[in-house]
Specification:
alpha+beta; Jelly Rolls; 2 domains; 6-stranded antiparallel β-sheet
Length: 378
């Protein structure tokens, strides 16, 4: 029966989380590490790292490319790619015609347009593409204008090549808790400082489609505001890359760093037989300290509610979460984060339309025996 396994990055019980992770993901390995001083991180294939605590620097050579900068701007040593004329024209069409889109799509389309900076385009729009796919609106109904659809098709066809900047000078750059780093066998990473990290090794991949660093401060905050006592935060270091077939494409792991509020959190699960095919989607919580980013807790206590059997929603467990907690959630397990600042890791990623929501079912079937989000029920 699906369940969760809980450990801590600084405790011996981390091993049981790593074992469960390996059982579901035999081509990957969950690890952890500590940097004290200066050294080099190496691996045999591909390794993603996420800082849990502390801070330091990584050495990024000239010529490296990144899609950061749509949050806090990158330094002058980063030179953005020129925007192709065809894409520039397409973005102008989208900006002038945003109201022609279905209402659920207007926000993501505007967020794409907003990344244009004159003759350049800054940042990664894979998250917005995911929202278009996740919306449930059939692609033929996204807009009532053929010209606007053609313009969007231009952007969709080019989006993986958009938003990149190239570094012109080699230098050390700061990293802090929550930031993501990528290492390959051909590109070991020089680091220095004092920090602890989680890592995932991908043994059947030799390269990454993302940049060496994805630092949260340099990424666009896609959370929006709150009208209650909670500090919104949502950055997407590594998100789903749309694929044309039923497989998972380049996707092997995704990362979204989110401050999850009780008021907006949905109870959901990812089915063992995933929507759209490919590998079943499992999830991890790598819990961070909200104080690092100045996020107030307002006296709230972070926790995770889980439902081991989605056919019996009266049964649940509630697990308190503290910074450094490491949680593995099997496919098919209902779950809902409450008031927690967390790096949500999914394997192979955040598959579109692969979240099955449960709040209404809990309300209807559990007889008040289990918690749910009343605001998300009819």
């Amino acid at each position: 029966m699906p369940d969760v396994v809980v450990g801590h990055v600084a405790s011996s019980n981390f091993a049981q989380v790593a074992d469960e992770f390996g059982r579901w993901n035999p081509a990957c390995a969950l690890g952890r590490g500590v940097v004290e001083g200066e050294g080099e991180i190496t691996c045999d294939g591909l390794r993603y790292l996420w800082l849990e605590s502390g801070a330091g620097e990584c050495f990024i050579p000239a010529g490296k490319r990144t899609q950061e900068g749509d949050g806090k701007p990158l330094g002058a040593e980063y030179v953005p790619d020129p925007l192709p004329a065809s894409v520039m024209d397409a973005l102008a069409t989208l900006e002038a015609s945003s109201e022609s889109f279905a209402s659920a799509l207007q926000g993501p389309v505007q967020a794409i347009v907003d990344r244009r900076r004159g003759a350049h385009f800054i940042g990664d729009v894979a998250g917005e593409i995911w929202l278009l796919l996740e919306s449930g609106v059939p692609r033929g109904e996204w807009t009532n204008s053929e010209n606007v659809q053609a313009a969007l098709d231009v952007v969709l066809g080019a989006y993986r090549e958009l938003g990149w900047s190239e570094k012109s000078v080699s230098s050390w750059e700061p990293v802090m808790a929550g930031d993501q780093l990528a290492v390959t066998a051909d590109a070991p990473l020089r680091v220095r400082g004092s920090f602890r990290y989680w890592s995932i090794d991908v043994t059947d991949r030799a390269e990454t489609h993302t940049s060496v660093a994805r630092r949260l401060n340099h990424l666009r905050d896609t959370a929006g505001g709150c009208n209650f006592a909670f500090d919104a935060f949502r950055r997407l270091p590594l998100t789903w890359i749309a694929t044309d077939d039923a497989g998972d494409g380049v996707n092997v792991v995704n990362s979204h760093v989110v401050n999850i509020a009780t008021e907006t959190s949905r109870t959901h699960y990812h089915p063992v037989e995933p929507v759209g095919g490919g590998k079943p989607q499992s999830e991890m919580y790598l819990v961070l300290d909200p104080g690092v980013y100045g996020l107030k807790t307002y006296g709230r206590t972070a926790s995770l509610v889980t439902f081991p059997d989605v056919e019996d929603l009266s049964r649940y467990e509630q697990t308190p979460l503290t910074p450094g907690a490491t949680v593995y959630i099997q496919p098919g397990t209902g779950h809902r984060g409450l008031d927690t600042f967390v790096n949500v890791i999914t394997l192979p990623g955040f598959k579109p339309r692969n979240e099955i929501y449960l709040d209404q079912r809990i309300k209807d079937s559990a007889g008040g025996k289990a918690p749910y989000n009343e605001a998300l029920t009819g």
